[in-house]
């Protein structure tokens, strides 16, 4: 998925580029074979192919990847240009500050908000255009039965005609509907990409979960056997129940704070551990 290279203010170090999409790394992941990819690029590949996307083609499972946090910190500190630089936006910010500056950028494209206005403007110019220059700005309402707003540009277009105004109004509604369909399609595409990435991450987690459960399942009998052995070793040591619990802890962890039970001497500890070893 990555960040477009021409957005960065200066050259991007090759180590900060995704080896799959060749863009600036976005949410980087590293593989055991040393390659770095965007999470959104590599996870779907690994789930489907089971190998590294780079030329080495080494076998790779979804769990064999690490978050490239140091790389991510470096990338987020890079300077990136305004996405609207072609329209005059010259602001340069740190990548970690996005997307807030884009949402407030005066050079973002915007259309006049009067019905029937099709002009594409800079966001900073919209208010002045609507107030002073837009031919679609209202100047009253039709008194001949149509009831539609009269616009500033109608006298120059031959005066108001109810039928023509209604057709224009219908056309404006159709245009707005088309714009909404386009925006909906764009959001659906973005949501689809996000869903694909999340599904890949979920698949990776599902592959990893049984392996983790199996490891703990194999360790459980060993731990149970050790606890049974310890309970036999310290069934009735001098000092009672608390002392027995201390000896269990010492045998398991090999360490004891003298403030907890000062009467448990090193000789007693070694004796408990040797008895458990013999058991």
From TrEMBL:
<dbReference type="InterPro" id="IPR013083">
    <property type="entry name" value="Znf_RING/FYVE/PHD"/>
</dbReference>
<protein>
    <submittedName>
        <fullName>PDZ domain-containing RING finger protein 3</fullName>
    </submittedName>
</protein>
<keyword id="KW-0862">Zinc</keyword>
<dbReference type="GO" id="GO:0008270">
    <property type="term" value="F:zinc ion binding"/>
</dbReference>
<dbReference type="Pfam" id="PF13923">
    <property type="entry name" value="zf-C3HC4_2"/>
</dbReference>
<keyword id="KW-0479">Metal-binding</keyword>
<feature type="domain" description="RING-type">
    <location>
        <begin position="18"/>
        <end position="53"/>
    </location>
</feature>
<dbReference type="GO" id="GO:0043122">
    <property type="term" value="P:regulation of canonical NF-kappaB signal transduction"/>
</dbReference>
<keyword id="KW-0863">Zinc-finger</keyword>
<dbReference type="InterPro" id="IPR017907">
    <property type="entry name" value="Znf_RING_CS"/>
</dbReference>
<dbReference type="InterPro" id="IPR001841">
    <property type="entry name" value="Znf_RING"/>
</dbReference>
């Amino acid at each position: 998925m990555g960040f477009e290279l021409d957005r960065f203010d200066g050259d991007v170090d090759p180590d900060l580029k995704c080896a799959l999409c060749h863009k600036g790394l976005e949410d980087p992941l590293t593989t055991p074979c040393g390659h770095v990819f965007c999470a959104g690029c590599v996870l779907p590949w690994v789930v489907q192919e089971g190998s590294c996307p780079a030329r080495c083609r080494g076998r790779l499972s979804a769990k064999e990847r690490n978050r490239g946090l140091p790389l991510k910190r470096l990338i987020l500190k890079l300077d990136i240009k305004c996405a609207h630089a072609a329209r005059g936006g010259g602001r340069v910010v740190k990548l970690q500050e996005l997307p807030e500056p884009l949402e407030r950028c005066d050079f973002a494209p915007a259309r006049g908000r009067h019905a029937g206005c099709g002009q594409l403007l800079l966001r900073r110019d919209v208010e002045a255009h609507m107030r002073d220059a837009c031919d679609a700005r209202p100047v009253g309402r039709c008194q001949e039965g149509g009831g539609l707003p009269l616009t500033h540009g109608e006298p120059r277009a031959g005066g108001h005609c109810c039928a023509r105004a209604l057709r224009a109004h219908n056309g404006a509604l159709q245009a707005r509907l088309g714009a909404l369909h386009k925006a909906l399609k764009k959001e659906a595409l973005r949501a689809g990409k996000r869903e694909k990435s999340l599904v890949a991450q979920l698949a990776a987690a599902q592959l990893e979960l049984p392996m983790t459960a199996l490891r703990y399942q194999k360790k459980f009998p060993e731990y149970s056997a050790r606890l049974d052995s310890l309970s036999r070793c310290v069934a009735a040591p001098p000092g009672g129940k608390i002392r027995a619990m201390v000896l269990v802890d010492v045998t398991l962890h090999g360490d004891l704070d003298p403030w907890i039970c000062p009467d448990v001497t090193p000789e007693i500890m070694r004796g408990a551990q040797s008895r458990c070893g013999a058991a």
